């Protein structure tokens, strides 16, 4: 049924986007395609992320993408790896109110209705995700499972977000026996009470930030967040020739290297993202990426991270 990105929509491509390949095969299936419906895709992405030097990844959870048994390919992939990379959760709130899914997702939780909104989000996102992933695979930070909560302009009013998020943390602890470590999008800090609920904060788009990264300093912890590149020209300007500058083309590894060097004093560095091909933020393996006058090695960005983590 296709992948979440047409071939013309991305400026770099991964094997399996235009047909089955053996590198994404899994079990009896000798070949696979670039889609999370296939366990072979998960296995390759997870193994590449660990090889690159990442400690964990956070799958982007819209909600419809984890309904039913849709996380089984991920669970199967984790079970097939002897010592897999660990997982946090990225709660992407964009889906709420959109018409592209079932009628359930057409609604928007109202943050003024604390109990109803908290249960709605928790029961359909946090709980099913962590229930489907074996606890031994959870990324634990400060002894707590790690959750990123992103603002997409759907959960309003932001000034009443803190009691809803606090209630969701309580619901999580009641079910799983541990409170999550919650890093909250800086937009939700419109609620002046948010520092009493969030464990950390982040800002997604960081190219205008000092050092090209956003630094959270809360509760005695330093957590950096950075977007290493942005190359969405194929998606934003289809059919056009890209200019030599502009925000639609941050292609090479200069930002990534600067962020890696500038975050050595941080407790944690989050890179956004691993594999978003449409926005061109991904640093995962690709086979046709050109900058600085050369076709780059498939793992050019992965090797930069690997080197930084090895101390060499």
Task: Please give the structural blueprint.
Blueprint lengths: L38 H14 L3 E2 L2 E2 L10 H9 L5 E2 L1 E4 L21 H19 L7 E2 L2 E7 L10 H16 L4 E5 L14 E3 L11 E5 L2 E6 L3 E2 L1 H4 L12 E2 L3 H9 L5 E4 L18 E2 L2 E2 L4 H11 L2
Parallel strand pairs: 1-3, 2-4, 4-6, 6-7, 7-8, 10-13
Antiparallel strand pairs: 5-6, 9-10, 11-12, 14-15
Shape, per Cα inertia axes = globular
Largest sheet: 6 strands, mixed
Helix content: 25-40%
Q: Over the alpha carbons, how many angstroms does the gyration radius reach?
A: 19 Å
The unreliable regions are: none
State the end-to-end CA separation: 44 Å
* Strand content bin: 15-25%
What class would the helix/strand composition place it in?
alpha/beta
Average pLDDT rating: 93
Number of strands: 15
**Can you write the helix and strand succession as a string?**
HEEHEEHEEHEEEEEHEHEEEH
Number of helices: 7
Could you explain how this protein is built, in words?
With 312 residues, the protein is α/β, with parallel strands linked by helices. 26% of the residues lie in helices and 16% in strands. It has helices spanning 39-52, 72-80, 114-132, 161-176, 233-236, 254-262, 300-310; strands spanning 56-57, 60-61, 86-87, 89-92, 140-141, 144-150, 181-185, 200-202, 214-218, 221-226, 230-231, 249-250, 268-271, 290-291, 294-295. The strands form five sheets. Strands 2, 4, 5, 6, 7 and 8 form a six-stranded mixed beta sheet that branches. β6 (144-150), α4 and β7 form a beta-alpha-beta unit. α1 packs across α7 (300-310). The radius of gyration is 19 Å and the shape is globular. It starts with 38 loop residues before the first helix and ends with a helix.
């Amino acid at each position: 049924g296709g992948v979440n990105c047409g071939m013309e929509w991305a400026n770099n491509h991964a094997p399996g986007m235009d047909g089955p390949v053996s590198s994404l095969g899994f079990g009896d299936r000798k070949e696979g395609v670039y889609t999370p419906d296939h366990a072979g895709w998960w296995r390759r992405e997870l193994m590449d992320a660990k090889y690159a030097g990442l400690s964990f990844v956070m799958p982007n959870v819209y909600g419809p993408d984890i309904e039913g048994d849709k996380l089984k390919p991920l669970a199967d992939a984790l079970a097939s790896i002897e010592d897999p990379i660990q997982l946090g959760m990225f709660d992407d709130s964009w889906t709420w109110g959109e018409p592209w899914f079932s009628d359930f997702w057409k609604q928007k939780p109202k943050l003024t209705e604390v109990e109803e909104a908290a249960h709605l989000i928790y029961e359909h996102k946090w709980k099913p995700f962590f229930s489907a992933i074996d606890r031994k695979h959870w990324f634990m930070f400060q002894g707590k499972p790690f959750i990123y909560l992103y603002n997409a302009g759907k959960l309003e009013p932001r000034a009443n977000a803190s009691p809803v998020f606090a209630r969701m943390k309580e619901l999580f602890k009641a079910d799983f026996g541990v409170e999550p470590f919650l890093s909250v999008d800086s937009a939700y800090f419109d609620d002046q009470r948010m520092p009493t609920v969030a464990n950390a904060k982040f800002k997604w788009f960081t190219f205008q930030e000092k050092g090209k990264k956003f630094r959270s300093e809360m509760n005695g912890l330093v957590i950096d967040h950075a977007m290493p590149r942005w190359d969405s020209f194929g998606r934003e300007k289809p059919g056009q020739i890209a200019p030599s500058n502009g925000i639609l083309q941050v292609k090479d590894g200069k930002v990534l290297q600067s962020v890696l060097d500038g975050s050595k004093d941080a407790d944690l560095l989050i890179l956004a993202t691993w594999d978003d091909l449409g926005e061109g933020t991904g640093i995962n393996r690709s086979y046709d990426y050109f900058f600085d006058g050369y076709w780059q090695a498939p793992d050019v960005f992965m090797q930069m991270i690997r080197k930084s983590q090895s101390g060499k």
